[in-house]
Design brief:
Length: about 400
């Protein structure tokens, strides 16, 4: 890697990459945010494979069924990131026992309204409405309630947030006030040298899908643009208010703020560049620039799918880094992306294809694949190693170890 042999700590390493300086080695992310984690079913198998003692399985993201990754695993794989929620000392009262779909005992946040209901698990909103379910034989929760599916007034957005799966289920630390949030962030900053990622969200396109349902929202954008603009303007007002409060509490203690908006599919963007520029780019620019005004942070966007045609506009809107760099999608060749956008954008991901190689390959094939990806993306900085999205429940533990061991060898 860098000719500078100075050993960096994890925070310095990640920030160097984000500043497009080549760090002492490639920085690594595992469970630093809700799209770089590991399925709770896969996690105990990984611990056994690594020869680590059993630990309670804590499912902090119930929707995606993601486990908290313990410190011994983070150390074993040389992980350089940590999610802000780890700054909160959650006592036993914050968790309640549950059972994973494969029968493994675990714990879930005690404030999650999980109920058994005729061959499925359901989650209820505060009003009692079922807004998510996981039928027997499946591994994740899916949304069942779309508050604006039959039409809705943008002025009703705050109330509708409580009826939507992705906004109605809070991961740890759960419902905390601003003072507790600030204190937890301060303590984490004091106790770790890892780069701290604050999960904000600020979704725009996805929030329309969460509220109206994907098909309805796409029709709204195309057929009723004025109504769509009004909805998005109300969202931006809400996001800006929340952003002010969030960064007032945690801004001095985090390094990266994570926004989310899945804009791509396997075959390319879900919208034309023209539609992105009309509806979303100006609003992303407002949110991302305001975040940088409020705190010394880099803006990371979680954005799945093939989005190459949108990258220039995302950069122009103020984006610093994109995740998960879904290299199996059309137009997302790592070498081409690095050559075209690598001076301006950090690729946070793309280190290992989870759809095909990590799931179906042998450990040797996984290692060889990682050994090809890293030299493409790492030169001149602008790269944080992460597999493409979360490690799924059926990924063999030997492949997970091979992936992280391979990046350690390359770097």
């Amino acid at each position: 890697m860098s000719n500078d042999q100075t050993c960096m700590n994890s925070r310095e390493r990640v920030l160097a990459a984000l500043q497009h300086r080549e760090p002492d080695r490639v920085p690594v992310d595992l469970s630093g945010h809700r799209s770089s984690g590991i399925a709770a079913i896969a996690y105990p198998r990984l611990r056994r494979y690594l020869g680590l003692e059993p630990r309670p399985i804590r499912v902090y993201d119930v929707i995606q069924q993601l486990a908290i990754v313990d410190e011994d695993v983070l150390e074993r794989f040389g992980v350089d990131t940590i999610e802000l929620g780890r700054g909160f000392a959650l006592d036993d009262a914050s968790w309640m026992p549950w059972t994973l779909p494969d029968g493994t005992a675990c714990f879930v946040p005690s404030w999650t309204r999980l109920e058994r209901d005729e061959g499925r698990w359901v989650i209820r909103s505060a009003s009692g409405r079922v807004f998510a379910h996981m039928p027997d034989g499946t591994l994740y929760f899916e949304q069942t309630c779309f508050p604006f599916a039959e039409g809705g007034d943008p002025d009703e957005i705050p109330a509708a947030l409580e009826e939507c799966m992705w906004t109605g289920v809070a991961p740890p630390p759960g419902p905390v006030d601003d003072r507790a949030l600030a204190e937890g962030a301060r303590q984490l900053r004091q106790n770790t040298s890892r780069a701290i990622i604050g999960l904000f969200g600020g979704n725009l396109f996805e929030m329309g899908q969460f509220f109206y349902r994907a098909d309805n929202f796409m029709m709204l954008l195309a057929a009723e643009p004025q109504k769509a603009h009004r909805f998005l303007d109300k969202l931006v007002e809400l996001h800006l208010s929340n952003l002010e409060r969030f960064l007032a509490a945690v801004g001095p203690h985090i390094d990266i703020i994570l926004f989310g908006d899945d804009l791509g599919m396997q075959t390319g963007p879900m919208m034309s560049p023209q539609m992105y520029r009309e509806f979303f780019k100006p609003r992303h620019k407002v949110l991302w620039n305001r975040a940088k005004e409020l705190a010394d942070v880099k803006v990371l966007l979680h954005c799945c799918g093939g989005v190459r045609e949108l990258l220039a506009d995302l950069i122009d809107a103020g984006l610093d880094a994109i995740n998960p760099v879904q290299i199996s999608c059309w137009g997302m060749d790592a070498g081409e992306l690095k050559a075209e956008f690598g001076r301006d954008l950090t690729f946070w991901g793309g280190g290992c294809d989870t759809q095909n190689v990590l799931l179906n390959g042998t450990p040797r094939q996984v290692a060889e694949h990682v050994g090809r990806q890293v030299p493409i993306l790492a030169p001149r900085g602008g790269f944080v190693f992460q597999q493409v999205h979360n490690i799924l429940a059926n990924v063999p533990p030997e492949n997970i170890a091979a992936m992280f061991d391979a990046v350690n060898k390359v770097r």
